[in-house]
Amino acid sequence: MQPHDWSGVFSAITTPFRDDLSVDHAFLARHVTWLMDHGVRGIVPLGSLGEGATLSPAEKLEVLATCRRATKGRVPLVAGIGTLATGDAVALAREAERLGCDALMVLPPYVYRGDARETLAHLSAVMDATPLSCMLYNNPIAYGTDVTPAQLGLLARHENLHAVKESSGDIRRVTEIGERHGDRFRVFVGMDDVIVEGMAAGAVGWIAGLVNALPEESVRLFDLAAAGRVDDTRELYHWFLPLLRLDTVPKFVQLIKLVQQEMEMGSARVRPPRLELEGDEREQVLAVIRGRFAALPQRAA
User: Fold this and answer.
1) Catalytic site residue from 60, 137, 143, 257
2) CA dihedral sign of residues 175, 205, 127, 124
3) Does 143 qualify as catalytic in the annotation?
4) pLDDT of the residue at 157
5) Residues 6 or more apart in contact with residue 93 via CB below 8 angstroms
6) pLDDT, tens digit, 9 for 90 and up, residues 37-61
7) Cβ neighbours of residue 241 under 8 Å, at least 6 residues apart?
8) Under a CB-based contact definition with an 8 Å cutoff, are residues 243 and 46 in contact?
């Protein structure tokens, strides 16, 4: 995977579960194909939205294998590398390479919130583990560690580090990365409800969440923004924002899977400790989802 391949809408794909909470590989393969057919340019399993922390090591490899068979080389397959221990992350990265993944999205360690030296050492170990193209996932809100644009320069020695998923929510980060590092890194927006602002600041890609349910609208929004069609972008973004904001709250997994269920492209099942929404909370979210669907703009080519 070359640096220029890091562009467009990539799906941080959800992990589907059967009634017994085992992974539904048949649906996973169908979902991957459906996303690609609607213009998604990359598939990213095992991330936060994919409930990677609840999957066993064996299940992670099985998910990657299913996605590899489904993508068939049509789009890059980017394995999310997130673990408790650095050694486990290195092992998972090497297995992802063995299974034919095209790239890695490298997460900071779960649970332990290291300082800058520790965080950069962990990320470096994973990037050194294989020659695969890498994306750094920076999400200080969720993980409690922050790789600043200045610290990013310390990782530039890794020739296979080509992209950054920036999920701080601070659009100034996008411009600062460009100012400090030029075109060394391809910047992706990692939070759904700042995609238009991020692209205006210089981002070239989007690791999207609501795309799991609404790929056509997601790809169209990205393409309109990239083409500079301001009025059309604003109209679609205005419609989409109440749904995109579901990606930026603690229960984003439950919420996005509920949108999938409403679109009849998936179920709302999640693995504990997450639980499906219920009662007034669920009804309030459904009112937002169904209200947006009722006002869905006409789909145009």
Assistant:
1) 137
2) positive
3) no
4) 97
5) 79, 81, 104, 106, 126, 129, 130, 132
6) 999 999 999 999 999 999 999 999 9
7) 193
8) no
> Tell me, what's the pLDDT at 142?
87
Q: How far apart are the first and last CA of the chain?
A: 29
What per-residue string of b and e applies to 44-59 under the rule 16 or more CB within 10 Å gives b?
Answer: bbbbbbbbbbbbeeee
What's the pLDDT score for residue 299? 57
The closest alpha carbon to 257, from 272, 277, 237, belongs to 277
Query: Looking at the DSSP assignment, which residues form a beta bridge with residue 163?
Result: 135, 186
Residue 51: the pLDDT is 97
Active site residue 257: no
Under DSSP, the state recorded for 51 is: T
Choose, from 60, 143, 165, 257, the residue flagged as catalytic: 165
Strand order in the sheet with 8-12: 42-44, 8-12, 205-208, 186-189, 161-166, 133-138, 103-106, 78-81
Q: Quote the pLDDT of residue 297.
A: 77
β-bridge partners, 133: 103
Q: Mind listing the domains of the chain with CATH numbers?
A: 3-227 (3.20.20.70)
**Which residue stretches of the chain have pLDDT < 50?**
300-301
